[in-house]
Specification:
Mean pLDDT of chain B: 81
Strand content of chain B: 5-15%
Mean pLDDT of chain A: 83
Shape of chain B: globular
Strand order of the largest sheet of chain B: 1-2
Oligomer: heterodimer
Strand order of the largest sheet of chain A: 3-4-9-6-8-7
Largest sheet of chain B: 2 strands, antiparallel
Radius of gyration of chain A: 36 Å
Structural class of chain B: alpha+beta
Shape of chain A: elongated
Radius of gyration of chain B: 16 Å
Number of strands of chain A: 22
Low-confidence stretches of chain B: none
Structural class of chain A: alpha+beta
Strand content of chain A: 15-25%
Order of helices and strands of chain B: HHHEEH
Number of helices of chain A: 25
Largest interface: A-B, 25 and 23 residues
Chain lengths: 864, 112
């Protein structure tokens, strides 16, 4: 080889890589020719051009060699392959620690990558299963911005849906409404509640739902038909039963003909047992019902038009309706692609997951490269012998690839098992709102993903291992000097420790927050309370008076049956917000408070403490002076420490008297401050919708409530009673998912960092064996050798920790601003993380350090 | 089918350049010959790989010699075998048969 000259030489890395491009026996000649060419170009066109020329020559050479003559490749690659496989397998079995280390590392990386890949694909990336999913849109109304809130998207009311369905649309081909309902199904004298989707018949075409049996709903407005979902049909009628066209179901008191069986599309619409036609009584379509916005409306954009044009047309539809009806004049409408709309809230978390999966896979390969190089010194001798016996670089590369393929296949098999095992709990723990979560599982795609990633990893590890093991090459000397000091690799390991530190700090903080928030006093105690939304709407309830009577009768009926019951609008943590304007001083600016309409028993049932004065009683009638109860936050804000009872307050525009003060409740969740609140008795403002609250578990409360409701109005539908605590649980579910995700990522990161640390230290000990031998021969004690290795490893760990903590200090507050309600400022979490990581890192460093002390000076020196 | 009857395009280029050089054919000179006669700056490693491949197929044989320009530098000299010459002839015959009856160049405005 040519020695170093002072003149600029060809790029060194390219020179090293040339060995991949030319057969061993031609290497010296090719190198000399290239050097000549380099000098020629250098003379003629200067150094940058010469370097470019050299690189281009080498790259083309390598490409030319790896895409060789197919005949020769075919013949070559099979001769002796079985021998290679046997030989490499034996070699791996002989080194169980190394093999397990590599397989374990790869399995962790593969599992992480494939798990997040599967999740992201199934939930987020794969197209929705509708025909031409980009053309399926959700149509909605837009409530104009007010001073305290921006424009809000609202669902569509029955009169507007009918207007939309009758319209000759330019941009939209079909429009369908989707409503949810719980229907009573009477069968053989028993009543069962089933969940139904009330839909316009166009929905089937829009979403591409094809009947498995029979047909879908007809366009005949008077037909009483029902379509079953496959699961419900199996569950209720049995697989073999002949139901289509024969069976009828008595739903909500009317016989419905079973006309078909369908399988609902994944992701939308969800959770239904049967589908029935959306039908209205005439009074539901009067303009006064424009405010009852509860229908989800989807449509299909016509070919040649896009969503923006559909959105504009919908805006015109709403504006026209407003103008013609003289109400909601400034409301507008819009459209978005349904699939995007369903998945939009989850984009961020899945992007983060995918990035983390890719990082872990990369770290796994880097760590494996570390483990391979720890062995390079032993392998080097073996390869020298094989080379001396005539093995070409190609053969050695093949051997390396065979070994990495064996390792990767084992890791892939482990990963398959791991992914299978992980996906179950993830499916179970994810919040129910995440669409298509039920489709997450092992499928052909996941297996193909594992196989594909395994192949890529096998090739990457094989090539890396080959490059590392080409001992004679300059690459080894430069990348991994014999002293084992390798700043770049130490840096990578330190970075892993840092990465893990940040992840674990985030996980620890979220955990701390969850624990802390669980201890927050919500101001109300929903334990043992069941609730359901009851609506007094329709022609039987034309005015406030009729509603007041029925609410009162309902509460009396329930009381007569021994139930502690109450009604309340806008109850805490139920996802509703009703900021009402008020002022205490008539000259002052209006302030806003959460407005509730409640019955007398509300505070007792919800466990809200009375601080001052009284709550409502039977004396607060529709004709008595208007009164309100406020919460302590409002009382403090408006009246300071002085008494609030007896003071006047103007709510919207009505003067009322404060008769009591109650403790504030956390209206939107334990992380948000207590808002100011105003409670009014339902007798003085009887609303059509309210949560019915009963102090009994749902199974007990159900019968009582159903019979009480029946006594009030046989036509009333009662949605299923559910524990009120579900609102609180749902609130925590989002946080729990974040905790789960960050926790798992942190755990994987920790394993990776420990393995990386172990690999690096093992490599260093192996590389420094002769140096250690000399030192021990010169009288260095075992303890001293041990400490020196340990010190090095812990230095890397501490460097990583410092970097991680720095990043955490800088990034924490930034993340905090996006991650509402989580306090990233604490010291105890980072401190705990440091202790934890040191505890895990210590053995990863100590094992190789311990090995360094058993170096026999005589043996170590003889090797060189 | 009994092996490949015709060399590939790049193989043929290298084979022809070696034939033109006769006894002076080695890596660098073949590369220079191709560059000088065709203007194609092919990859030197690719030339070596192709020569090695043709050596395996028995189209050329190699022997150690010295460079024309620098007597101190050992080179690997290549010489066509009879099979190599036959391969060139076969390729030429193939192309001539295919070109026959095609009077004008296929591309417009380009000379042949």
């Amino acid at each position: 080889m040519t020695g170093r000259s002072r003149k600029p030489g060809p790029p060194r890395l390219a020179r090293v890589l040339l060995s991949l491009g030319v057969h061993a026996e031609d290497r010296a000649a090719a190198r000399a020719d290239l050097d000549d060419g380099f000098r020629r170009v250098l003379r003629e066109r200067g150094r940058p051009a010469a370097r470019r020329w050299y690189w281009w020559q080498v790259i083309r050479g390598i490409l030319y060699r790896v895409i060789p003559d197919p005949d020769v490749l075919w013949r070559r690659s099979w001769t002796g392959l079985a021998g290679d496989v046997r030989h490499r397998a034996r070699a791996l079995v002989r080194r169980p620690a190394y093999t397990l280390g590599v397989v374990g590392t790869l399995a962790v990386g593969l599992s992480a990558a494939v798990t997040v890949g599967t999740l992201a694909w199934r939930v987020w990336l794969s197209p929705m299963p509708f025909p031409d999913p980009e053309g399926v849109v959700r149509l909605f109304e837009i409530e104009p911005a007010r001073e305290d809130a921006g424009p809000i998207r609202r669902r569509v009311s029955p009169p507007l849906l009918e207007r939309m369905r009758e319209r000759e649309w330019v941009t939209v081909g079909a429009v369908a409404g989707v409503g949810r309902n719980v229907l009573e199904w009477r069968r053989d004298g028993e009543t069962r509640r089933i969940t139904a989707l009330a839909v316009s018949p166009e929905i089937f075409d829009i979403l591409g739902i094809r009947p498995g049996e029979g047909r879908t709903l007809s366009h005949d407005a008077d037909a009483r038909e029902v379509v079953l979902t496959e699961a419900f049909r199996r569950d209720a009628f049995g697989q073999g039963a002949d139901v289509v066209g024969r069976a009828t179901m008595n739903l909500a008191g009317e016989d419905h003909q079973v006309v078909g069986v369908v399988r609902l599309t994944e992701g939308y619409p969800r959770d239904a047992e049967v589908l029935v036609p959306l039908r209205w009584a005439g009074e539901q379509l009067v303009p006064g019902m424009r405010g009852a916005r509860y229908l989800d409306v989807v449509g299909r954009v016509r070919a040649g038009f896009d969503v923006a044009e559909a959105s504009e047309e919908m805006a015109r539809v709403v504006a026209d309706a407003g103008r013609e009806e003289g109400q909601y004049v400034d409301w507008r409408g819009g459209a978005v692609v349904l699939g995007d709309d369903l998945l939009e809230p989850y984009g961020g978390i899945f992007a983060m997951l995918l990035a983390a999966g890719a990082v872990f896979l990369l770290l796994a390969v880097v760590n494996v490269a570390g483990l391979v190089s720890a062995r390079a010194h032993d392998v080097g001798r073996q390869r020298a012998i094989r080379t001396a016996l005539g093995a070409s670089q190609g053969r050695l590369l093949r051997a390396a690839l065979v070994e990495s393929a064996l390792l990767a296949v084992a890791a892939g098999a482990l990963a398959l098992g791991a992914v299978q095992w992980i996906l179950g709990p993830i499916r179970g723990l994810a919040p129910v709102e995440v669409p298509r979560m039920e489709t997450v599982g092992m499928g052909v795609g996941t297996v193909a993903g594992v196989v594909g990633v395994t192949v890529v990893v096998a090739v990457a590890v094989g090539l890396l291992g080959h490059l590392i093991n080409v001992r004679s090459s300059a690459l080894t000397r430069e990348w991994m000097p014999r002293t084992g000091r390798s700043p770049s690799r130490s840096g990578i390991v330190a970075a892993q420790v840092g990465f893990t530190t940040v992840l674990m700090c985030a996980g620890g903080t979220i955990l701390g927050t969850v624990v802390e928030l669980q201890n927050v006093d919500l101001g109300f105690h929903p334990e043992g309370v069941s609730s359901a939304l009851v609506s007094l709407t329709g022609e039987r309830y034309p005015d406030a008076e009729s509603r007041l009577v029925k609410w009162r009768v309902l509460l009396e009926e329930l009381g007569g049956r021994g139930a502690d019951a109450a009604i309340g609008t806008n109850p805490p943590m139920a996802g509703v917000n009703m900021p009402w304007g008020y002022r205490v001083d008539p000259t002052a600016e209006q302030a806003f408070a959460q407005y509730h309409i409640v019955s007398a028993g509300y505070f007792d049932v919800m466990g809200i403490e009375v601080v001052e004065g009284r709550v409502f009683s039977g004396e607060d009638r529709e004709d008595s002076p208007p009164v309100v109860v406020v919460n302590d936050a409002l009382a403090r804000a408006e009246f300071g420490p002085g008494p609030a009872v007896g003071r006047r307050i103007e709510v919207v525009s009505d003067e009322k008297t404060i008769v009591g003060v109650v403790r504030g409740v956390r209206h939107t969740g334990p992380d948000a401050p207590v808002p100011t609140e105003i409670y009014a008795p339902f007798t003085q403002d009887p609303w059509p919708h309210a949560q019915l609250l009963i102090e009994a578990p749902p199974e007990i409360a159900s019968d009582v409530t159903a019979s009480a409701l029946a006594a009030v109005d046989a036509g009333l539908e009662l949605p299923p009673l559910q524990p009120y605590g579900r609102f609180v649980q749902e609130w925590y579910a989002g946080l729990t998912l974040q905790l789960l995700v960050v926790g798992v990522l942190g755990g994987v990161g920790l394993v990776m960092a420990a393995l990386g640390l172990y690999a690096l230290m093992a490599y260093r000990v192996s590389a420094r064996r002769s140096e250690i031998g000399v030192r021990m021969a010169l009288g260095a004690s075992r303890g001293k050798v041990f400490t020196s290795v340990l010190r090095h490893g812990m230095t890397i760990t501490v460097a990583g920790l410092v970097v991680g903590l720095l990043v955490w200090t800088i990034a924490g507050p930034v993340v905090e601003s996006r991650w509402g309600g989580i306090d990233f400022g604490g010291v105890s979490v980072p401190l705990g993380v440091v202790l934890f990581i040191v505890t895990v890192a210590a053995p990863a460093v100590a094992v190789p350090a311990r090995r360094s002390t058993v170096v026999d000076p005589a043996v170590a020196l003889r090797r060189d | 089918m009994g092996g490949r009857a015709y060399p590939g395009e790049f193989e043929l280029v290298v084979l022809l350049a070696s034939a033109r050089l006769g006894s002076g054919a080695y890596g660098a000179s073949i590369h220079k010959e191709i560059l000088d006669t065709t203007g194609r700056d092919v990859s030197i490693p690719a030339v070596y790989v192709t020569l090695k491949r043709m050596e395996d197929k028995g189209l050329v044989t190699a022997s150690m010699g010295v460079s024309d320009s620098d007597a101190s530098r050992p080179t690997k000299n290549y010489r066509l075998t009879s099979e190599g010459r036959a391969a060139i002839d076969r390729s030429r015959a193939l192309f001539e048969r295919l070109w026959r009856d095609m009077e004008a160049p296929l591309g417009q405005g380009s000379g042949s």
